[in-house]
Amino acid sequence: MKLLVTGGAGFIGSNFIHYWLKQHPEDNIVNLDVLSYAGNLENHASIEGNKHYRFVKGDITDKEVVFPLVEDADIVVHFAAETHVDRSILDPAVFVRTNVMGTQVLLEAVKEYGTRFHHVSTDEVFGALGPNDPPFNEDTKYDPRSPYSASKAGADHLVRAYYHTYGIPMTISNCSNNYGPYMFPEKMMPLFISNLLEDKKVPVYGDGLQVRDWIHVDDHARGVDFILQKGTIGETYYLGGNAEKKNIDIVKLLLTYLGKDESYIEYVKDRPGHDRRYAIDFSKATRELGWKPEVAFEQGLKEMVEWYVANQEWVARCKSGDYQAYYDEWYNKTLKK
Ligand code: NAD
Ligand code: DAU
């Protein structure tokens, strides 16, 4: 089988490619990635020279690049996106360009060649839950509240529209917050781990009582595999980690793992439009695919911390270049009290 993976140099795409080559060593993967600030070919050092893997540098909005690759593939697994909510607050336009327009270019190619298409989406498209609401489920309406989540919602709607209008063979997954190795150190967990390793404070937004449902990235990769093997065309599956945690409780775990005290917490202003709580009901994926998350949260988090301790040069390279300028702008405009 030939897979075209978009965004395979990012956090989840990298882990997905490693997972796939291990589970399906005879399959061939082409990784199409533009190498934005979040894309990193170092993530694939361990598979360099693998004749089943090929990298193509290119933009998913570029038809000339996308069409021949889609024609040559049996399956497209679409991860490529702009993904950081904070960046979408500073500069929404690139989110619309990549997440909406890029997805539409891929859909045109899929329509042309009839290639199987899996769209990787997020639980953020459903907005925020109150403390006593049931987790997001098949009845939850779309209610995106950040430019990032609105652009992902737009992409989800386009994928479904191409299914209903043109009959493209598609599936969608909406997944909760991933964690694990190769996560770019602008997202909460790796930012906090790397700050603590650099003896810096961690900026906790608002009161720190926001809740996310954390899933290990390997469980996400396995979930996508199950959908590709057993999913029904036209269907959407929710994937979650069964691990609802308050941000502040994660911070306390990280402080303990890294031998720091609570003086390392800096309460900053809240993220504008900050969604209070996410949680996912993944019972359809269990019922129809036999999938459920397997990695226990505290064990997964401990392993993630160990990975970041062992890979501080990787982190330092991520935090070089334009990173500091972006972060200073974000901090000074939005977070500073
Ligand atoms: P990431 O930011 O780490 O990686 C995104 C990758 O896409 C990068 O390698 C980047 O270079 C590439 N890319 C960006 N624009 C591109 C373009 N125009 N053309 C080609 N490649 C481009 O993101 P991630 O966290 O790995 O997320 C991957 C997917 O999973 C996204 O679609 C995201 O919405 C979804 N998702 C993420 C999470 C999460 O917790 N991180 C949860 C649910 C769903
Ligand atoms: O739910 C899935 C989504 O999870 C994905 O679709 C997104 O691509 C991914 O970035 C993630 O979005 P979040 O906004 O939940 O992740 P982030 O790591 O940015 O923030 C997690 C929580 O931590 C959130 O409540 C905001 C808070 N936070 C974040 C940062 C960066 C802080 O308190 N301080 C921080 O410095």
Automatic annotation (TrEMBL):
**Which EC numbers does the record give?**
4.2.1.46
Quote the Pfam families the UniProt record gives.
GDP_Man_Dehyd
Instruction: Please report the organism this UniProt entry assigns to the protein.
Output: Candidatus Magasanikbacteria bacterium CG10_big_fil_rev_8_21_14_0_10_42_10
Q: Show which residues constitute the signal peptide.
A: none
Q: What keywords were assigned to this record?
A: Lyase, NAD
Q: Which InterPro entries match?
A: dTDP_Gluc_deHydtase, NAD(P)-bd_dom, NAD(P)-bd_dom_sf
Task: Provide the cofactor list for this protein.
Answer: NAD(+)
UniProt keyword Transcription, yes or no: no
- Catalyzed reactions: dTDP-alpha-D-glucose = dTDP-4-dehydro-6-deoxy-alpha-D-glucose + H2O
Top-down, what is the taxonomic lineage of the species of origin? Bacteria, Candidatus Magasanikiibacteriota
Q: What's a BP term from Gene Ontology annotated to this protein?
A: nucleotide-sugar metabolic process
Q: Would I find Membrane among this entry's keywords?
A: no
Q: Which CDD domains match?
A: dTDP_GD_SDR_e
Question: Gene3D superfamilies, alphabetically?
Answer: NAD(P)-binding Rossmann-like Domain (3.40.50.720), UDP-galactose 4-epimerase, domain 1 (3.90.25.10)
Spell out the protein name for this chain: dTDP-glucose 4,6-dehydratase
Q: Which residues belong to any copy of the NAD(P)-binding domain? A: 4-304
Record's superkingdom?
A: Bacteria
GO MF terms listed in the record are:
dTDP-glucose 4,6-dehydratase activity
Similarity section:
Belongs to the NAD(P)-dependent epimerase/dehydratase family. dTDP-glucose dehydratase subfamily.
